Amino acid sequence: MKRQKSFEKEQPSLYLVPTPIGNLSEMTKRGLEILEKVDCIACEDTRNTGKLLQAYNIHKPLVSHHEHNTKESVPKIINALKEGKNVAVVSDAGYPLLSDPGSWLVKECVDQDIPVISLSGCNAALNALVASGLSTEHYLFYGFLDHKSSKRKKELESLASFPYTIIFYEAPHRIEACLQDILEVFSNRKMCLARELTKLHEEYIRGNVEEILSICSTLKGEMVLVIEGNSKKEEVDLNLAISRIEECIESGMKTKEAIVFVSKEMNMKKNELYDLYHKK
Question: Across residues 148-158, what is the average pLDDT?
């Protein structure tokens, strides 16, 4: 077990700093303070991060850290931390590590007892979820589906029975094909497509999959898909349940044992099945 008290004493730390997903004014005061404080900033694209820092007149060394260079960048960042430097991690937009690289770096820091401190800030998935009009009580953030239709359908099939709201990210050039697969696997559920969040052309499109599919070829910008969960409960064949209990009893099980066995097998509540069997 490892316990980290982030504010108990000053020590070299890795800071996970969210950055605006569009509107630069949404950069938090604490986020700016951390970017001013650290010795260097690890970023997905030095050009994009450079523009952000320029807007706030922050001048710090930048370390390229993205999914294609982690073998080189992670040891470099760990060494900087061990030398007593503070390092911030940012992505091009939004929350670091969510559909962005960084988990290996955090794992290495945790393994080597280097503090990892996360800040609050922008996140496109949550922006879209809370304004979608769909249930927010429970949800799954899935991120990007595979870009190949065959693999994407397999991913969707594994999620088809999930009862809660599901959040996907998607690029504009794949949105039509993605929604076509969602319609085929999930059927015509309620959904919300949120695009260009916090930017001038921000838009929330609420409807069902077919409706949004009919216009998606005209849409541009980064997109978040918020999809209704599966609200259909599978109907259990009660006669089949009774037959299975009788089969188990004939095979040598006691009645109570057979009911418990079938309740697990058919995903039914034991008490309901008990009552059903004794009222037949």
Answer: 96
d(CA 118, CA 78) in angstroms, rounded, equals 17
Q: Going by CATH, does the domain composed of 14-118 fall within 3.40.50.2300?
A: no
Task: Grade residue 4 by pLDDT with cuts at 50, 70 and 90.
Answer: very high
Domain boundaries defined on the chain: 14-118, 124-227, 238-278
* Whole-number Å distance between alpha carbons of 270 and 257: 10
Using CA atoms, how far apart are residues 40 and 56, in angstroms rounded to an integer?
A: 16
In whole angstroms, give the CA distance from residue 51 to residue 44. Answer: 13
- What letter would DSSP give residue 19? B
Residues in the chain, total: 280
Q: Give the burial class of 166: count Cβ atoms within 10 A of its Cβ; 0-12 exposed, 13-18 middle, 19 or more buried.
A: buried
- Rounded to whole angstroms, the Cα distance separating 230 from 222 reads 26
Is residue 269 within 8 A of residue 241, CB to CB? The reply is no
CA dihedral 69→74→77→83, nearest 10 degrees, is -140
Rounded-to-integer distance, Cα 242 and Cα 229, Å:
31
Mean pLDDT on 61-65: 96
Q: Among residues 72, 69, 118, which one has the least CA distance to residue 98?
A: 118
Q: Are 3 and 50 in contact (CB under 8 A)?
A: no
What is the overall mean pLDDT for the chain?
93
Whether the predicted model's global pTM rises above the 0.70 cut: yes
Q: What is the mean pLDDT of residues 93-114?
A: 92
The DSSP bridge pattern shows strands 223-227 and 190-195 to be antiparallel
Read off the amino acid at residue 27: M
CATH class, 124-227 region: alpha beta
- CA distance from start to end of the chain: 54
